What we know:
8 strands
Amino acid sequence: MAKNTICVWYDKDAEAAARFYAATFPDSAVGAVIRAPGDYPDGKQGDVLVVEFTVAGIPCIGLNGGPAFKHNEAFSFQIATDTQEETDRYWNAIVGNGGQESECGWCKDKWGVSWQITPRVLSEALSAGGGQAKRAFDAMMTMRKIDIAAIEAARLR
């Protein structure tokens, strides 16, 4: 296990979530699946308790901690994309697997974890500052999934 690992709390589906992430994003994998050595408040001995996984190179663990805590936008995975095809593929995988769309490149997977599918073009435009950043930002504010061509057009106006 890495020295610093992101712990993501799930009600009961950490393994299913980890397997979905591993199948969806490159440089992602499922590692150890650790079962509870005894009963606990929201599970029984032998239930999956912790799943070690990697999402786009970031080490994580999924903890099946029960329904006490819910996900919100205060935590999200941000995935940088290079093309509209890549943006569409990740967005559609998350939303099409029981997730939901949000604004400005954000969506949630079916477990409630927030994702930002962010084309590098958008990040570059915002980093440029000035009028380019303002025009790209204004265009982004009207979008759900980011449209790279629209961001590029706004940036260059």
